[in-house]
Amino acid sequence: MEHVYSSIDIGSDTIKLVVCELHKNHLNLLAATSVPSKGIKHGLITDPEQARQSINKAFKEIEDMLGVKINKVIASVPNYLAEYKIIKGQTEIEEDIITGKDIGRAYKDGIIHSLEADKEFVAIIPIDFKINDKTIMKDPKGFPGKKLMARAMMTTVPKKNVYSVASILESLGVEIADISLGSIGDIDCFKNKDIESSVGAIINIGSGTTTVNIYNKGIPVNTKIINMGGKDIDQDLAYMYRIGIKEAKKIKEKFALAHKKNASIDDIYKTVNLDGKKIKINQQEASEVVMSRLEEIVSLAKNEINHLTNRPIQYIIVTGGVSNALNFEYVLSSELGGSASIGNIKLIGVRNNKYSTALGNIIYFISTLKLKGQNYTMLNKDDMEVLSSSSKHFLNTSSETMLGKVFGYFFGE
Question: Which of 274, 263, 264 is nearest to 241 (CA)?
């Protein structure tokens, strides 16, 4: 057991909490849970006490799985009104050889001169570094020099986006080790060398909202939120068949398909409507309802991509819980064409795309530690020993998985 990291993604429908271990430069899943959320609407906290109870339940479930208390976490904060700004900072090298501390000081200089008073700093995504006004590179640590200039993308959000999340976690005795955004987590979850050299988009279809993010060489540059998601499908089904929302959600997740292509008219779902009348719903009809709303969501996302950038798009990845629906690929094909694909998480135990933000934020956090030359784990020595004694129960990734390759790339394998 080497280094352990935990990450939470607070969604309108579910709270996702993931705990991973980095062992020999590869990521292993230790535990993951997804619990229903309350007090959260369109990704924003509307009832702090209800949200607190939901978040606390997620932590309790993870603690039951691991046998240790999670008291540090990477927290994803709402993307609303997120801004991305390229910053430049510089510093004098203290001991002629560049260290992680020099990188941190250069970043700090850029942040201080660029951060607006009403905004909260969230994250820095490195672009490149210049040594002595000449040599440009991605990681300058260990190189000689007198002056270091850093160029990076700074992400900020309104202060309330951060404080609303931080106050709840603090009340639960959980320390925030770092904050991040869905736009950062999603790209780091799926990033590869092709993405790092192209312009593309990730569409995250959640329960209450759909987030459209644009990336240039793997760096987020713009975000748009559409107030439509999986809950709108539930409402459509509830209205169409005059049934409760819970029953509609069950039909969406367990019976209907995302596209009518392979739906059967002979496959029947029996239920009772709000009038107490027994009704029969065939799969094809239910799938047409789901497909209609999904086509609208994807079409709106496509329009936003066109509005957010005029550059050619090399890839579109769709993630979020809704993207797991059977036959969803047919909706993508008809609305977005061949450039679009469904996100594919290959870490055993969290292959559901609803975990992409939480998992990706761990990847981002570790890559940041590596760049700064820092060594960090979120558990103390005693808790690490408890986990090590039961490590045989944990799920591992092999070196052939996408995440294994990502971490091999980060750590120079």
Answer: 274
Local structure of 309: helix, strand or coil: coil
Which pLDDT tens digits describe the chain residue by residue (413 residues)? 579 999 999 998 999 999 999 988 889 999 999 999 999 987 789 999 999 999 999 999 999 999 999 999 999 999 999 999 999 999 999 888 999 999 999 999 999 999 999 999 999 999 999 999 998 999 999 999 999 999 999 999 999 999 999 999 999 999 999 999 999 999 999 999 999 999 999 999 999 999 999 999 999 999 999 999 999 999 999 999 999 999 999 999 999 999 999 999 999 999 999 999 999 999 999 999 999 999 999 999 999 999 999 999 999 999 999 999 999 999 999 999 888 999 999 888 888 999 999 999 999 999 999 999 998 999 887 777 777 665 544 444 333 333 433 333 333 33
Domain that holds residue 141: 83-159
Of 172, 174, 20, 6, which Cα lies nearest the Cα of 74? Answer: 6
Residue 167 covered by a domain: no
Both tokens of 69, joined, read: 């208390």
Q: What are phi and psi of 33, to 5 degrees?
A: -145, 155
Domain membership of residue 213 (yes or no) is yes
CA 160/CA 59 separation, integer angstroms: 23
